[in-house]
Design goal:
The chain is α+β, with helices and mostly antiparallel strands. The protein has a single domain, classed as Alpha-Beta Plaits (2-Layer Sandwich). 17% of the residues lie in helices and 17% in strands. It has helices at 12-15, 20-24, 52-56, and strands at residues 3-5, 30-33, 38-41, 62-64. The radius of gyration is 12 Å and the shape is globular.
Length: 83
């Protein structure tokens, strides 16, 4: 279940050079689009599914896409986030 960015919530970590998700991703998959200032996962198929990006995002703009055989259609999986 690779993670993805909810574009409406992402603020690009307020214009920093490197976002929190870019900093923590062990596979360096997260990229910041300089035009929109939104982060995105450049290769979801290579995601290790560690969910570090989901847990660290200050805007909670990262979510998890579930597989149909694992979760019923319409269901959502929300990892616990630290406070």
């Amino acid at each position: 279940m690779p993670s993805y960015v909810i574009a409406e919530k992402c603020d690009g970590c307020k214009g920093q050079d490197k976002t929190a998700c870019m900093h923590i991703c062990p596979n360096d998959l997260m990229v910041l689009n300089k035009d929109t200032m939104k982060a995105y996962n450049q290769e979801p198929t290579y995601c290790w599914e560690c969910y570090c990006c989901v847990k660290i995002c200050p805007q909670q703009a990262m979510d998890v896409r579930g597989y149909a055989d694992f979760m019923p259609l319409g269901a959502a999986s929300t990892p616990l986030r630290g406070s």
